[in-house]
Amino acid sequence: MKRKGERIVEGVLAFSALVTVLTTVGIIWVLVSESWGFFAAVPLKDFLFDTEWTPLFAQKRYGILPLLSGTLLTTLIAILTAVPLGIVIAVYLSEYASKKLRNTLKPLLEVLAAVPTVVYGFFALTVVTPFLQSFIPGIGSFNALSAGLVMGIMIIPLISSLSEDALYAVPRSLREASYGMGATRFQTAFKVIVPAASSGIMVSIILGIARAVGETMVVAIAAGQQPNLTFDPRESVETITAYIVQVSLGDVEHGSVEYRTIFAAGITLFIITFLLNNLSFWLRRKFQQKYA
């Protein structure tokens, strides 16, 4: 027979799992039920393919493409900034730094993750944007470039920490075999260790993308709130999350089609993050099988 304490622990764990599942189901239910009224008034075709998003204007248009382009543009800039730096930092901490230096630098790096995102937003607006304006002609006070760069800096700790853990978990025997074949430390790091830890590195990148897609304050402060269908990083853009904040804190009447746009945008964001999470799971399994 199981001890009473074990049954209590099993019950607590089962309850925690149930709460997690019910919370997810509740979120999906709210998004679907509220957005149902929106799509009853706005055709799905217009929502997916219209090139203008002006639900708060006199001439109302409900095309999600401008918000999607702003989200993808800032996310792309962030990932192009964070991935090279994050992986290089992870390789240095895992393969080059001494144990004492690693134990010192890693917590310092992770301090960046504790900085409030609103601070990053004001840093992008008051420091990064004026710096970019000093040598990039035509860049506005609100632009996608500065927001994306600062978002990249913000997610470096996530990518570098997870990648470093994956690199550190590679068996020592692989390193010794590589050195025994005459490989240098650089060759061992990037031709043996990095491929062996590729599943963990890919997962860290996917999670970084999901983090950038869901970021709110940096883009709301630094990128502006102008829904433009553009891929010019010098221009002002609006992301899905920034629009949700704009409407949620505004004077839009509850229950109206304009108010329900935030749920339509929210379910779009949910689908994107859901696909990213499944992609990370698929990539992890694929690379684990490849290097097993």
- Biggest sheet architecture: none
CATH class of the largest domain: Mainly Alpha
Q: Provide the CATH superfamily of the largest domain.
A: MetI-like
Tell me the domain tally.
Answer: 2
CATH architecture of the largest domain: Orthogonal Bundle
Sketch the topology as an H/E string, one letter per element. Answer: HHHHHHHHHHHH
Helix percent band:
over 70%
The overall strand count is 0
Shape: globular
Q: What average pLDDT do the residues reach?
A: 88
| Secondary structure tally, helices | 12
* Straight-line N-to-C gap: 39 Å
The residue ranges in which pLDDT falls below 50 over 5 or more consecutive positions are none
Within the CATH hierarchy, at the fold level, what is the topology of the largest domain? MetI-like fold
Radius of gyration: 23 Å
Strand content bin:
under 5%
Structural class of the helices, strands and pairings? Answer: mainly alpha
